[in-house]
Write a structure and sequence with these properties.
Length: about 35
Amino acid sequence: MGVFLTIIPALIIALLLLFDPVLEMLAEDNFPLIAL
């Protein structure tokens, strides 16, 4: 169980880092008011 508690947050952070530029592009194109 401890292994999953370590790996899962790391995977989530990695996914957030990978998708952050994509989300920013989408936010700038479609939702300029939401982009912070």
